[in-house]
Design brief:
The protein has helices at about 50-70, 110-115, 255-265, 285-290, 310, 345-355, and strands at about 10, 75-85, 90-100, 105-110, 120, 130-135, 140-145, 170-175, 180-195, 200-210, 220-225, 230-240, 250-255, 275, 275-280, 300-305, 320-325, 325-330, 335-340, 340, 360-370, 370-380, 380. With about 375 residues, the chain is α+β, with helices and mostly antiparallel strands. It has a 6-stranded antiparallel β-barrel with strand order 8-9-10-13-12-11. A hairpin with a 5-residue loop joins strand 11 (about 220-225) and strand 12 (about 230-240). The two termini are about 15 Å apart.
């Protein structure tokens, strides 16, 4: 579950010109030019001595970034989206994407191309080709296009979540505000974020970065210094007064890409496993109110009618009481493990289901009810589309 504060919000991209809620995909806008003025006087100052070892380090990093850009940029594309308006195709927005394989499959965000009537892809050398949307998944905000690849546009390899760490240098390449082939550099600011999807569900394991991503970057790659894709740039956090970067961006993780994209290529859709549970992470008022013997776990607040959890006999909130001046839901089960893996937060369940299960698979939930542990085995369903 994603909680927004009063002064900040996550903005997703809508590809309409009239919308200001674009995240990393954006709309066409005029270039800004600066007025000319008299150059300021040049002040010459003494240059302090430079540590040669530091200079060599900077030079080496520069070489890495220059080499990475030269290798990867030909495989990053600018995506222009058209809608049919009164019988005419009109450009309504743009985003980014990148080459996934030698069959001409391009990965981008679903919110970049969803509902479009035509899509064009512009390569780094200016070549423009028509593309076809062959699959999209609103639950992960991922989509796949297909286009005839020109020479020099090769697949960008995927990286691994296991090798990521907070503080690691990362690079984004895309088309912010329509400025093709822009590279920005930053670090992984946090791992394991949960961000909103284009549905009522959430996307787990998102990567938070301070690499500048802006409207137009949506669908472009977030890369490690080896030039491997570790995420698809998708969202930014804003103050609500500006749609531009403020140092907090989010990318859909490579772990989700690896599960969703092959299915989109093969069938045009991806079926997500479904438990039919809503809830939140155990907190101190809940521990007090229910006299729980644990301080961590996932509280079951509500169950979806017809869902796997309700069929397996799980219990949801039965009443709301006041505990230390706060309203607290009580009576629901607390999930403490899934298939033997410890559950500390509600997001742990989402991550496990996303990365390790499929619809129709049986899982065993360890729950705490009335102070006693018990196991409940159920068969996962398929996420409903609405």
């Amino acid at each position: 579950m994603h909680k927004l504060t009063k002064n900040t919000r996550i903005i997703l991209s809508a590809i309409l010109f009239i919308s200001l809620v674009s995240l990393a995909c954006g709309v066409s806008a005029p270039r800004v030019t600066t007025s000319q003025s008299t150059p300021p006087a040049v002040v010459v100052q003494a240059v302090p001595s430079v540590n040669t070892s530091q200079l060599e380090l900077v030079t080496n990093e520069d070489e890495v970034l220059v080499d990475l850009y030269n290798r990867i940029n030909p495989s990053v594309v600018n995506i222009t989206v058209y809608f049919n308006q009164d019988g005419e195709l009109t450009s309504y927005g743009q985003g980014s994407g990148f080459v996934y394989d030698d069959q001409g499959h391009i990965i981008t965000n679903a919110h970049v191309v969803h509902g479009s009537d035509a899509v064009e892809v512009t390569f780094s050398d200016g070549l423009i080709r028509e593309a076809t949307v062959i699959g999209e998944d609103l639950n992960s905000d991922l989509a796949v296009l297909q286009v005839e690849l020109p020479a020099g546009s090769t697949a960008i390899p995927l990286g691994s979540m296991d090798k990521l760490a907070v503080g690691q240098t990362v690079v984004a390449i895309g088309n912010p505000f329509g400025l093709e082939g822009t590279l920005t550099r930053g670090i992984i600011s946090a791992l394991g974020r949960t961000i909103p999807a284009l549905t009522v569900f959430s996307i787990p394991q998102a990567i938070q970065t301070d690499a500048a991503i802006n409207p137009g970057n949506s669908g472009g790659p977030l890369l490690n210094l080896n030039g491997e894709v570790i995420g698809v740039n998708a969202q930014i956090e804003t103050s609500g007064t500006s749609a531009s970067n403020q140092g907090v961006g989010f990318a859909i993780p490579v772990s989700v890409i690896q599960r969703v994209i092959p299915a989109l290529i093969e069938t045009g859709k991806y079926d997500w496993p479904w438990l039919g549970v809503s809830g939140y992470t155990v907190n101190p008022p809940l521990v007090k109110a229910m006299n729980l013997p644990v301080e961590q776990g996932a509280y079951v607040s509500s169950l979806t009618d017809g869902g796997p959890a309700i069929a397996a006999g799980l219990h949801a909130t039965s009443e709301t009481i006041t505990q230390d001046g706060r309203k607290v839901e009580v009576g629901g089960d607390v999930i403490t493990a899934i298939d033997g893996e410890i559950v500390k937060t509600f997001d742990d369940i989402l991550v496990y289901l996303t990365l390790k299960t499929s619809p129709g698979q049986e899982v065993t939930l360890t729950i705490l009810r009335d102070g006693q542990y018990q196991d409940r085995t159920l068969k996962l369903g398929t996420r409903p589309s609405n």
